Amino acid sequence: MTLNVERLTYVEAFEELLPEWETLESLISPRTPFTSPIWNKLWWAYFARQGLLRHDECFVHVLRDDSGRLVAVAPLMRTYQPAFGPLRFCKLQFFGADPSLTEIRGIICQVERQGEVVHALMDHFGGSNNKWELFEWSGIRLDGEAYKRLASAGDITTRRTLPDYVISLPRSWEEFHSRLSNNTRKSLRKGYEFIDRDGHKIALRVTESPGELGDALERFFSLHKARARATDMKPHRDSFRPTKHRNFLSEIVDHMGARGLLRVLQLESGGEIIASRIAFALGKELYRYFSG
Length: 292
Known about the structure:
By secondary structure, this protein is an alpha+beta fold. It folds into 2 domains: about 5-150, Aminopeptidase (3-Layer(aba) Sandwich); about 200-290, 3-Layer(aba) Sandwich (Aminopeptidase), CATH 3.40.630. About 35% of the residues lie in helices and about 20% in strands. It has 9 helices and 11 strands. The chain has helices spanning about 10-15, 20-25, 35-45, 115-125, 145-150, 175-180, 180-195, 210-230, 245-260; strands at about 5, 55-60, 60-65, 70-75, 75-80, 90-95, 135, 200-205, 260-270, 270-280, 285-290. α4 links the parallel β6 and β7 (about 135). α3 runs antiparallel to α9. The longest helix is centred in the last third of the chain and has 20 residues, at about 210-230. The model has no long low-confidence stretch (mean pLDDT about 95).
């Protein structure tokens, strides 16, 4: 099947395309929050650089089949370093080039179609007069046709691989527990025994009401910072130390929380929240994000 590639303006990508993009995203599995139009629109608003040293240009492309149905979104940008001058360097890359907030980025399409989408994009860009020194592909599955296609092109280097673990859960905790190894069940039992021995009572609180998410998010930021400052455990970076990062996640929480797509998982002991984790409820899938 032939896929037609088209470049969109910012308004076309994030306003006019919204219903189609949301429909496409709902078909993806495994699903992440980073494929949503909300995440990408807010990411561009917060992190696109328009300075003299670096300038990001919106370069979003869509792919449609012969019937006009949306098959893929490629949220691309051209990054110029510096913004002007005869020696400027141009790199083509995907939205999400932040320090750590966007954990997975790349082409937005169903997994089984990634190969043909990459093929179509390579043919499209290879036959155009666009000029850049580097095309940085992201989110390419190493076990799929897309990677084989890129590898066969020759001049490509794999900079790093990113493990992405997906666990298929049974219908109940009892069934899940029965599948665990004896050592794992023993470790779980000991964990609860230690908590009881020390006189602690713990409970899980799941916050999803839009009116309660703001307070839950502030506790998350506080706990995330506390873990980063801890000296008696493995070091963790405070990913939300910059105000811009906190404001960005706050807007994500507001938008996705209003649509019932967000959960804050909180562990309570003695009436105090002692641990917190952000999670995205995407259909029948749960994506676990940062914790503290």
